[in-house]
Write a structure and sequence with these properties.
Elements: H1 21-35, H2 40-57, H3 63-67
Subcellular location: Cell projection, Cilium, Flagellum
Family: Belongs to the ropporin family.
Keywords: Cell projection, Cilium, Flagellum, Kinase, Transferase
Length: 76
């Protein structure tokens, strides 16, 4: 099968959702609601930068384990 990124999407069967995406979006959404940021753009940028850093610093751990830990994000 050719690379999905090179094809037009005509039906749901062509869409491949990464296994981690739903849990990442769930935790991200909870943090947005919990923090009620003044700027959702700034908050989102910081949230995902922090998530990338956690992933880099804990390369031996699965990202889902990191998401399960309570986050002490500050309100942006």
């Amino acid at each position: 099968m050719a690379d999905v990124r090179e094809q037009r999407i005509y039906c749901a069967e062509q869409i491949v959702v990464p296994q981690e995406l739903p849990i990442i979006l769930k935790h991200y959404s909870k943090e947005v609601i919990r923090n009620n940021p003044v700027s959702i753009y700034d908050f989102s940028a910081k949230y995902f930068r922090d998530l990338i850093e956690k992933r880099k610093n804990n390369s031996d751990k699965h990202i889902m384990n990191e998401l399960e830990k309570p986050d002490s994000s500050s309100r942006v």
